[in-house]
Design a protein that fits this description.
Strand content: 15-25%
Distance between the termini: 54 Å
Number of domains: 3
CATH architecture of the largest domain: 3-Layer(aba) Sandwich
Number of strands: 21
CATH superfamily of the largest domain: P-loop containing nucleotide triphosphate hydrolases
Number of helices: 20
């Protein structure tokens, strides 16, 4: 079995399970100076009063393991010994492995580290996983890394595998199998493995160490609940979760985050949980370097001032980027919905230069409901910058309905010709069909992109009119890429529009929602008012992006396609 002492000149200390029983501070006895020095929270005080103590030799054994056996694999430090940063030692490794129960086992069986991206948390977790595998004194150890999907779970595994391959001492004893995402230690019949979220197959594991990566990405509690008690038969099992801030305060992550923060802020006396939370406060200036330093303990080491300034400048120019900056760089929980585009920026992009007849365009069509606004956007990708034209339709009855409900009046835009009325209580799709066909006589329509909801009949009719119709589902998968592209075109000034005031109104209304991975898409439900023109633009861009990736097969000539 690998022991940290084997590569030092220090005398062997206590065994890997804990200090000699003679050194244990019994309940009611006077605390040692060493233990007093590591009392940081109210929970620490309670633990010490119950006979828990701090064993510096146990903590130093882990630090020695990191420095002697582990090597960094990326960036400027690649190949160098893993020397723990101050915060990694003082806030995580030393208390986690130094604090002991009266019987010599680890005091903490749970640890939660909430910290912004790029602070080295995955590398730290990989080192912890390897220590638990080979140097924790646990025969038949079962150490796992888990996440929302196998790709995320593989991040810690891949880092650990690379560390093993870079260490002659570890690589001679451990068997790395990247295909199966396992590292085996035959000498003690132990294993480290990356798990996917395939919950039903996880029962029956005898877990000694569980590292849960990016807890905020867990959409359900199933995987957590399945693995949570998998180490019940172990003497000192450890669950170690790491995460950046999320968006859902009803989630498992928020629950665990709050528990960790409560310990850190002396609102909890849970002696079994080590809570480490680095984050900017709600009232902190997110544009201030002092706030950046507060939230990022590796600032100036793994995170450069330049990269933070550049990310902050992007956030200042885009409200959507602001949320991502505050979540991923400052570890603040941000709402799922956020305002998006600057109307002032949109106004700057107005251009009334005529577009040449028969120019190629992609048409996005947002049919909305049959009783409300319908929008068509045509984007001309061959122009530089892109050119965009918008058209809107509305049933006659909708004008009176909006007036009665005290919503934004559209009658002025109707009189000015920016919105075309169709007779009756519902939108007349025959009018829309005719107008699109007339538009197609003036310009060359490459594709018509439509949200499939309530659109089958019109899509089929347009297909019969010899248009190439493609369905685009309004999911993150379907429109996130086009949403980011539309934002980029606006911010960089690489698009020009025809000055349609209805479209400008839509731009002012639109909000976006994000998923756990940071993807964004427009949200009609949470936007201030109608956003149909913007959504139609994103549908059109989805077609442009997809066509650029792969031309339609020559055999796909009939029926409505989907992307």
């Amino acid at each position: 079995m690998i022991r940290a002492e084997s590569v030092t000149d220090a005398q062997p200390g206590a065994n890997a399970q804990g200090a000699d029983t003679a050194s244990v501070v019994a309940k009611g006895t006077r605390l040692t100076a060493e233990t007093k020095n590591w009392i940081r929270t109210r929970a620490d005080e309670v633990a010490a009063s119950q006979g828990c103590y701090f064993d510096s030799r146990a903590a130093e054994r882990v630090r020695t393991f990191f420095e002697k056996f582990l090597r960094h694999s990326k960036g400027a430090d690649a190949g160098r010994p893993f020397e723990l940063l101050d915060w990694q030692w003082d806030r995580v490794i030393a208390p986690l492995f130094g604090w002991k129960m009266p019987d010599g086992t680890r005091r903490f069986n749970r640890a939660g580290v909430a910290i912004p991206k790029k602070n080295g948390k995955s590398t730290l977790c990989a080192g912890v996983a390897l220590y638990l595998l080979v140097a924790d004194g646990e025969r038949g150890a079962e150490v796992y890394t888990a996440a929302a999907d196998r790709k995320q779970a593989s991040i810690i595994y891949n880092e650990a595998a690379t560390m093993v391959e870079a260490s002659s001492a570890l690589s001679s004893r451990l068997k790395v199998r990247r295909a199966s995402k396992t590292i085996r230690y035959p000498e003690t019949n132990s294993i480290f493995e990356a798990l996917s979220a395939d919950v039903p197959t996880k029962d029956g594991f005898n877990i000694s160490g569980l590292l849960f990566d990016e807890l905020h990405t867990q959409q359900t509690r199933d995987l957590w609940n399945t693995l949570r008690y998998g180490g019940a038969a172990r003497r000192q099992p450890l669950i170690f979760w790491i995460t950046t801030a999320g968006i859902d305060k009803e989630s498992l992550c928020w629950e665990q985050w709050e528990q960790a923060l409560a310990v850190q802020e002396n609102r909890s006396e849970d002696i079994s949980l080590l809570g480490v939370v680095y984050a900017a406060g709600d009232n902190d200036d997110w544009k201030s370097e002092e706030t950046w330093k507060k939230a990022n303990p590796s600032y100036g080491i793994t995170i450069s001032t330049r990269s933070m300034k550049e990310a902050c400048e992007e956030a200042i120019s885009s409200p959507a980027n602001e949320n991502n900056f505050r979540r991923y760089r400052l570890n603040q929980w941000c709402g799922q919905v956020t305002r998006w585009l600057s109307v002032d920026r949109w106004r700057e992009l107005e251009d009334h230069t005529p577009i040449e007849a028969k120019s190629k365009c992609f048409v996005g069509l947002d049919l909305s409901t049959t009783t409300d606004l319908t929008a068509m956007t045509a984007i001309f990708p061959k122009s530089s910058p892109y050119r965009i034209m918008t058209r809107f339709w509305l049933p006659e009855s909708a004008l009176k309905t909006r007036e009665r409900s005290n919503r934004t009046r559209l009658d002025n835009w109707v009189r000015q010709g920016w919105i075309k009325l169709t007779k009756g209580d519902v939108i007349d799709y025959d009018v829309i069909r005719k107008d699109i066909n007339d538009f197609g006589k003036q310009y060359k329509i490459d594709q018509i992109l439509i949200d499939p909801w309530n659109a089958t009949q019109l899509a089929t009719q347009l297909q019969s009119d010899r248009h190439n119709v493609v369905f685009v589902r309004p999911t993150f998968y379907g429109v996130a890429g086009a949403t980011k592209e539309f934002e980029k075109l606006v911010l960089e000034g690489n698009i020009r529009h025809d000055g349609n005031p209805v479209m400008q109104w839509n731009v002012a209304n639109v909000a976006v929602e994000s998923d756990a991975a940071g993807n964004i898409k427009p949200t009609k439900k949470n936007s201030a008012e109608k956003i149909d023109g913007v959504f139609a633009s994103i549908l059109a861009l989805a077609g442009i992006i997809k066509t650029g990736e792969k031309k339609p097969s020559k055999y796909q000539t009939t029926g409505v396609q989907s992307i």
